[in-house]
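Query protein
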Amino acid sequence: MSLPGSQHAVGTDGSDYQHRECIAPHYRASIESKSRLRLLIYSHFLLGFLVFVHILTYHTSLMSTLNVPRPHLWQYIWLNSILSSICGLVSINKNRIFLMKIFFRGTVIFGLGTIITTIIINLSELFTFKKLKTNHQLDELEPQTFFGFPLLSAYSLIADNNNNNNNNNNQQCTKDSCSSITSSTYYVLYDVNHGEGFNLRRDVYIRMANLIHTLRERKSADSNWILVLPPWGPLYHWFSHNLPRTQLKWSNFFDIKSLSRFIPVIEFEDFRQLFTSSSSSSSSSTSQITIPYVYTLQHFSEGWGENFEEKLEIRKCNEESMYEKRNDNYYYGWFFGYDDRIRARQFQCLSAQGFVTVLVDFLIQNITWSDDRNKEQVVKSIMFDRAETLLHVDYGGYNYWRARRSMRYAKQLVDLGNRFRVDYLNSTDLIDRTVLIDDWTKMKRHHSQAMGGPYIGIHLRRRDYIKARPGYVPSLEHAARQVCHHLSRLNLSLTFIATDADENEIDTLRQHAHQLCETSSNQIYTYRPNEKILENILDGGKAIVDQWICAHARYFIGSYESTFSFRIQEDREILGFEQDSTFNRLCGDHEVLLIISLIAIYWFQRKPTLSKPDDIQQTIRNFRIDNGGVKGAGASHEGSFVDRMIHSNKKMVVFYGSQTGTAEDFAQRIAKQAKRYGISAAVCDPEECDMEELQRLIAIDKHLALFCLATYGEGDPTDNAQEFYEWLRENGRDLTGLHYAVFGLGNKTYEHYNAVGKLVDKRITELGGVRVCDLGLGDDDGNIEDDFMAWATIFWQNVCHKYELVINTDGTSMRQYKLVPGPFPVDSVFTGEIGRLKSYERQKPPYDARNPYLAPVTNTRELFQNDCLRSCLHLELDISATNIKYEAGYHVGVFPSNDAALVNRVGELLDVNLDEIISLLNVDEDAQKKYPFPCPCSYRTALTYYLDLTSMPNTQILKEIAQYATDENDKTLLTLMGSYSEEGKIQYKEWILDSCRSIVAILEDLPSLKPPLDHLCELLPRLHPRYYSISSSPKVHPTSIHITAVIVHFETPTKRVAKGVATNCFKELYMKHQAIGCAQHKEGDTCHLPGRLPIFIRKSTFRLPFRFQTPIIMIGPGTGLAPFRGFIQERHFFKNQVKPQGKPVGETILYYGCRNRAEDYLYEEELNYFVKENVLELHIAFSRDQEEKIYVTHLLKDHGAKLWKLIKEDNASVYVCGDAKNMARDVHSILIDIAQTYGNMTSERAAAFIKDLIQKERYSQDVWS
């Protein structure tokens, strides 16, 4: 029998034995050694099994970010150690030598097992971590150690190497890195009102960062603008008065390298050291540097006025200046507490109103730098005090968020916040799905990507808010009640509170929470660092740790109108939280009662109603229509063009950057042609896509990305391609393996011919893209249709060769849209609106190209004389009922309508009822553009407002409609012109281009051609807005916009009369006004002027210099006078009507030309009036009033010496408006000749001088071809 609890063993003969000493020693040793061996084997087998579980669970949780805690290897190792120890204890006996052997063997086996399993684990982790790092899913990985072994040192080397490579692209400027500053390096300093807090100052940084970004874009490549970071402190909300409070570096709180990825920045102390280190006479701590310009920004003393406008003006200071002038004629002030070590050469108060970029023109055109650094430590710098005066240039826009994303916090603060989350809130980035990578330019998160930690984050502001906003600050009891409500609703138990409340108040809140929802005191946390940590991170660091913890919460609740809460909400947007979990705030006590009352009233008074299906469809329609194309609202992959392509099995995507519609048309045609090769293609507007996903496109087998990009203005991208263009130019992009091709659209008469297409093609190659076809360049000054067809032929040859494709000749339908039968509800039918349904009946701002304003025409008059065979009209559009603002030099876009006679003629030729309501729906369900124009609508509406009937159709249209000609000769002609044979090109040029045949003329001349009108509507290009330079000044005409336009009206070679679409509308309005004897609207006149025009404003860089004293030289023959009329009006306004004494205005010189004084001299009386007022110096060239023709270019040559003096010595600005092909080119050449002749320059230097004028925006062009 065995005793209870004693070891019991069975012998080989079946007998029991209880006392081991009764068994022979050698037999006993044999048995025990086998037992020990088995135990060792079993223990290590168990270790291996647990290691396998470790790999499985950890990697599963890592890849899917499930809420699974990571097991640690040391847990398994110590378990193994315990098992081995048990094995050793079991084997204890008197044979010590044998015991030592067993112990030694067990230790060796244990050590080898531990090392092998650890190596396996870490190799696996290394592979996984490296993969995640490559995919930018992990922020940083610190090496781990087990018993002192650096297990992930290899990965550390890899990570460091990558970081070093990335840092090479940084623009950070320090004392050492900026030791050699070029003469074209400029520094911008700024300060904020001393009473403003930490968080608003961070907001002002974003404004100034965007100012620097704009300056760097607008200035020449050799100009280097750097932002100097103002030292922090002392701030009102920093209560730890025993800690350092002034001259604190930004690096205490922010990652300077991250800031530098957006713009180059330098700490103020480094800036000061940089320019004092060269002074040998005194130490850097006492050396003095001089800032040439200091401006205190202030509001206009008279307020904003009735209408908002951007403006700047040097004025007397509204308040007592903080800068005083001393006997040495320098200004001294606060300068961040550096006292006399910083001084200013010039100080003025600058009244400012508008966006921060209003300072750009001021800096470029008005700041000059004298080179006297040998005399004193003068830095090419300018300082703006009270920088909070000006507004964000694009609040919430692309560059706003780039600046905000660059404001990563200092690593030590992030580490403190993360440690607190782990220790108290069970929160890690991996589990919470809030992992960030170091380089913010290489990542983009979307809403709902972040899950957040299992706690609620709350910002409870109390101290000053209790008095400042008593109605919006909840009592502690009501705050606890709201906490309990959200904890219950979200099924959470932990709360973190960032607050300025003292500990007693927090304890009171905890007590209320415990009474209301039994929340214990250790479930409501605040961050209270000890004295040592607080000395290190300071009050500002504590605030950031608070914000960082709140930003990672599952749900956040802020305080009313608190910038502290705003910064947290911005962080959560960057991390990728759902907006519903971010934009919430604590309600004041009275607000809670009000909400309860409203809910009660609604509950008792509500009447259940069922929405009609038509009402639902109407609501959806009103929100989904966008400039003629209905967005797929509610689509599962909205914005994700790659997901849509995968879903619909598309291999090719065609992006277009279009201002007038040509590039979009080419993109649609390429996509159609792709069907013939068995390729399904998507056509996308880059503005509507997340272009970060280009990197994902390579996952699609045999993928292809095509870019049809127009160059607009002075080498700029079109509006819809602007964001993609800027994204592509940023550092850190990777498009390795992307198969692509680019076709650019431009005009050779412009200096920056096809600049956008060239840059995109070059840049994608630099980023690792694979060019499928050489860059195509279309010239709108020549035959852009021919250029496109020639390139498309080569493009498809290359694609067929690369992907082994053959053309499909089975006659597959090329229709992109299908006709949807009616009937349609009357209130769902478009009647000419450009965007939102019924937008012309219910006009709502803001007004733009997608929502134009239907402006009344209040005045029309003929500007040419009665005996002139041509016509030029002056129109005035009333905007008094809107908030539309414009500046002299801006453009007005007008949506025209086709001539009613032309529309009716189409109906007659095709024998169609034009009043039939139709709808065309894209056959591709995943297409971004659902309709070719706003649908449903009548044929008449489509032909009148949406389709271009006057332009000459392209070859693709001819090719498509050829099948509908019943006469073989007609079909042969159309097929030939639609082909790309040499004979076809010649025939197309002669029969279409040279003869100016529109689609209506083709239908008339080929009577057998009867295409279905719905197919023709699909093929015809959209009718786009026409742009006109505004010929008025908002200072003189704030409630109206003036247009000056020559009426286009000529006879074609086929004896037809061709009319300009928009100018024909103008002429019809003028004729109607004449017919009713009411050509001009007068005050109190009851005569109703018929006619309205859909308009919107397009900004332009063609604008007056900021300083009124700057001379201007205007060159504008013909209607090129239009913007200069506004310029002259504005200068006259400031000289004679602003204040009793007016303002000094620089020379205003106009070179104007026309054919005859007696026929087409525009605004003669006005110009003569301005001359008499000594506002204008006028030079006119009448080209046909004498035998030898004289043009404005002749006058420029004659006045070369004077012009050179104005440009070189007086810093005059030059403006050219008119014909780009001849006049503008000639003027450019003449200016180079003048610089060469009177400036004693070589031709190369003269050309460089004129180019520099362009880059400094002292030479501007508003031209057309």
